[in-house]
Amino acid sequence: MYENVVVPAEWVAERSGSVRIVDVRDAWEFDGIGHVPGAVNLPFAEFRSESGDEGMLPGAEVWESLLSAAGIAPDDDIVAYDDTHGVFAARFLVTAELYGHPPDRLHLLDGDFSAWNREHRTTTESPSPAESEYAVGEPEQSPLVDYDTIRAALDDPEAVIVDTREAWEFAEGHLPGAVNLDWRDLVDDDTRGLKPANELAGVLADVGVTPDTRVLLYCNTARRISHTYVVLRSLGYDDVGFYEGSLTEWTERGGPVESEAE
User: Does residue 153 share a domain with residue 104?
Assistant: First the structure.
């Protein structure tokens, strides 16, 4: 189990000089609204691609270029945040893990920029980091699972396939036997961060997701499952599959889909 996967603002503030902080919001938000002091801006659109290495990953060369320009080294501790409960920041962290960044050095700011802004200083001054030579590597244990793995899991009573989209999307069409867990059910609208651990355990248990189950995650394009994946990792789940292709690939390949009407 990795420690400090999801970290409070105080944790980040105390380590502002020793961690690399990444803001994945659009540039106009970073520059115009302000950002966490010392943060570099790597907008979500810059590391999101439909023609990368695996599904929606941007490609190794693109990733190396982005992190090198931001002055990030392969062994840096990274804290990522957005202003949308962490879902876009989580996608950044999962991408980093899939490209070989040590998982124990990847952290999600609990809450988001709005949560930080309530009690901590912000700035509009952009840093000018010295360029690094970031190189991707192979993860020690990749959470990626492919179409065939998910197809086989449809008949596996030991696995639970989790659809992290909204209820109306699930009702319109989902993988046979999947359970619906809207990623937003794991966050608190008031604090903007994760719900308390005991509440999270209850929400997850209600859909059959417990630490001893094999969990396979999907959504439409792997953004929303990134948040759920990070949350499960923070709770000590060690058998979580990340279906990068998600429903986009599934339907393109003719995978079976069922709806609530059926």
Answer: no
Q: Whole-angstrom Cα distance, residue 69 to residue 67?
A: 5
Convert the pLDDT of each residue in 173-228 to its tens digit: 999 999 999 999 999 999 999 999 999 999 999 999 999 999 999 999 999 999 99
pTM of structure: 0.95
Residues 6+ apart with CB under 8 A from 57: 49, 63, 95, 98, 99, 244
Q: Is 119 helix (H, G, I), strand (E, B) or coil?
A: helix
Specify which residues 216 forms β-bridges with.
161, 241
Count of all residues that appear for the chain in the document: 262
Q: Based on the domain organization, do 102 and 180 belong to the same domain?
A: no
Q: Name the residue range of residue 191's domain.
A: 144-252
Domain of 19: which CATH number?
A: 3.40.250.10
Measured CA to CA, the distance from residue 157 to residue 102 in angstroms comes to 32
State phi, psi for 78 to the nearest 5 degrees: -120, 130
| Number of domains present in the structure of the chain | 2
